[in-house]
Amino acid sequence: MTFAEDASTVHTGTAPRAMATLRNLAIGVLKILGADNIAKTTRAIRDQPERALPLLGITNNPDTQGT
Question: Which of 3, 19, 42, 43 has the fewest CB atoms nearer than 10 Å to its CB?
Answer without folding.
Answer: 43
